[in-house]
Amino acid sequence: MYQVMTSVKAACVMMEGRLSGVRKGAGVRKGAWSQSEDELLRECVQLYGEGKWHLVPQRAGLNRCRKSCRLRWLNYLKPNIKRGDFSEDEVDLMIRLHKLLGNRWSLIAGRLPGRTSNDVKNYWNTNMRRKVQSHKENNNNNNVKESETTWKPHQVIKPVPRALTKASSMVHGKSMNSSKVGVNETVSAESENWWETLLDDKEENITFNNTTCFPVEKDGSFELWDEELDSIASEFFAEAETWSDFLLN
DNA sequence: AACTAGTGCAACCGCCTGCAT
DNA sequence: CATGCAGGCGGTTGCACTAGT
Question: Quick one: a GO cellular component term (predicted)?
Fold first, then answer.
């Protein structure tokens, strides 16, 4: 429905010749995509396949930047994209995944068939953020101090998936150099252990039975995941046989 | 009917990472 | 090792639409 509305909207905009939302920039066109542009992009991707996005504008005859083409394809034109409201199951899964992964929308979307990372992100930013806010307001109205509530920010595991090349030192059994991780990132002893576990393929250690799993920092100390996360993780492992499979999927 | 505030979605922007040179 | 480029991601913005007054 919305797709139709959008198409109609784009057509109207074209006819009126005012192209609202198009910001005049140097060179490439910006703003809303027209139907003809969509067709050109769709044909191009069907012909040449996904990828090589820097070639797409030239191949398709589009005056768009590579990023714009890629985004349009991934978020709108790609087949099997599911439109419309999120089902209860999807929302439930999204909440659980967000608790597990944080704002890693692409990973979350990867577990929601037909949903794009942009969809998930938009849904979360509009619906869920509001729920969180109202929840906090309720707590305030009940004169409950924030610190005394059970509503706490998620403790998010933030692994950094990386493709390992043959040249990678980690592949050869060397520990990761923390200085390579990122400019502002520091690698704690815990995360280094985590990597060791991952790279050594010691998934048998991650059994999610409250006896062996990733520690979660809380009030300066570390405690294990709760049962809820156990169940989530178990679901994933039913599909991805190893933790690495899940993360790098 | 006119105005305003809120909402939802598409698209842009800046940054990060991997790879090739 | 430095640099440039392409792909990818998350945060943010812009704007059409809707509901309320």
Answer: nucleus
